[in-house]
Amino acid sequence: MTDINKNLNECFTLHNAKAECLEKLKKAKVRMSKQRLELLDLLFSGTFNCTKELYYEAQAKNPELGMSTVYRFLKVLYDIGVISNNKLLDVNCSNCNFKLASLKNNQGQELKADGLDLQELLRLGMVVKGLIKSDEKIDIKMLDDSVYISVHEDENKKQ
């Protein structure tokens, strides 16, 4: 199968899956708001690792979208059998790679922050404040609106 045919086949399969999902939602009498349609589009784009990433992508398109809306809709999808793995509802994702979207100084001026890794920025700030050693690494876990940071030795430095 050529790459073009493979891509067309994947698009067709994805389109069918989305259509089937919409049909299941219709049968379950779920009202499809603009926010839910946006979430469905993102779900079928598959560009996220966890609920938190899905939420951030959706909120970038619609700033009024709340985290509870994402959770409630995912629960609906789980209840009607569209989502078969409850792992998607887990926000403790160590694979999440958060980038700093914007950075402003105290005068409100936008500073260059393109692609800054938020986890590394937090780690460096903790080093500067003397909270951790420079050779220590951090893991970030998020649950609802809380951030949990665990500190551990850098595995590369042990050797």
Please tell me about this protein's structure:
The protein is an alpha+beta fold and 159 residues long. It has two domains: 3-89, Winged helix-like DNA-binding domain superfamily/Winged helix DNA-binding domain (Arc Repressor Mutant, subunit A), CATH 1.10.10; 103-158, no CATH class. It is built from six helices and four strands, in the order ααααββαββα. The strands form two sheets. A two-stranded antiparallel sheet has the order 1-2. Strand 1 (103-104) and strand 2 (110-111) form a beta hairpin. The radius of gyration is 20 Å and the shape is elongated. The N and C termini lie far apart (46 Å).
Task: For the structure shown, list the relevant keywords.
two-stranded antiparallel sheet; disordered N terminus; 159 residues; WH_DNA-bd_sf; alpha+beta; two-stranded antiparallel ribbon; Arc Repressor Mutant, subunit A; 6 helices; elongated
Using only C-alpha atoms, the radius of gyration works out to 20 Å
CATH class category of the largest domain: Mainly Alpha
H/I helix tally: 6
How much helical structure, as a percent, in the residues? Answer: 40-55%
Contiguous uncertain segments of 5+ residues: 1-14, 89-93
Reported for the largest beta sheet, the result is: 2 strands, antiparallel
Query: CATH-wise, what's the superfamily of the largest domain?
Result: Winged helix-like DNA-binding domain superfamily/Winged helix DNA-binding domain
Assign an overall shape.
elongated
Kindly give the count of domains: 2
The assigned structural class equals alpha+beta
